Amino acid sequence: MSEHLSTALHLAADGLPVLPLRRGKVPFGNCPACAKNACGGRPNMKTPGLCTCPAPCHGWAAATTDPHVISSPTWAPAWRRAQAVAYHPGGAGRTVVDLDNADAVTWARETLPATRTVPTTRGEHWLYQGAMPSANAVRPGVDIKSTMAYARWLGPGTGAMTALPDIVRALAVKTPPTVRPAPHIVTVPAGGGECRHRTPSYLERGIAMAEERITGAREAVHTTVYRTFLAVLSTHGRCGCLADTHMARLFTAAQAKGETVRHCTDAWTNARTSLGL
What we know:
The structure is a single chain. The longest helix has 16 residues, at 200-215. The protein is globular and about 65 Å long. By secondary structure, the protein is an alpha+beta fold. Helix 6 (200-215) runs parallel beside helix 8. The chain has helices at residues 3-13, 67-70, 76-81, 102-111, 166-171, 200-215, 221-236, 244-256, 261-275; strands spanning 18-22, 26-27, 84-87, 94-99, 116-119, 124-129, 135-139, 142-145, 151-152, 162-163.
């Protein structure tokens, strides 16, 4: 039994879904039947499908805790060529804050709650208990690896793992552009009064309904997110009532359905452009 296979079985027994990595610290390519996702993808991927390929295909989605799969003859060729072991943090209810350089580590020590840390070649992994959408480059030298992502196993680390804090969750929604009011005067009802959009209950109800619409999407998530953003902006985008916190809630709902920060930002920008905002 290879060292990597032995490590993988040990991690799987502890509840970490694992997969082999080849040279370059990347997953093995799909088998011929799954090449270019021709099979439709694994059920737990964004791409719908019912692929049950026994090979370690589809990157992070291949990660498993099943010792029979990990040690199967189908996975054996990959383990013989493996250069490292990876795991799916989100599948184990964990989040890895990947700090890629000394400046990022310094920032984390000054900003984030202490938790279990693992040294890496250039920085550190900070491990928190709790899952969230993954996001790259949330700030210089900082990536978040949790759901729909993999992290290389570099050892158990030191320190007690603490609960995923809100400050880390917020990192994934800090990149969207700021919503600015359109440069025109808001017309108020005759006789005075405030724009009804500024009524907290009206705006809150609108944002909550938009969150529910995104969360309830079972297919065509991209389209649903865009149309929801369009509806929110058409109602609230011209009076200056929308705040960054409202946009962050919508982005969070979209990312929970598998959308990336980039996709959310593009959808928001396209919706604003369509409305002439």
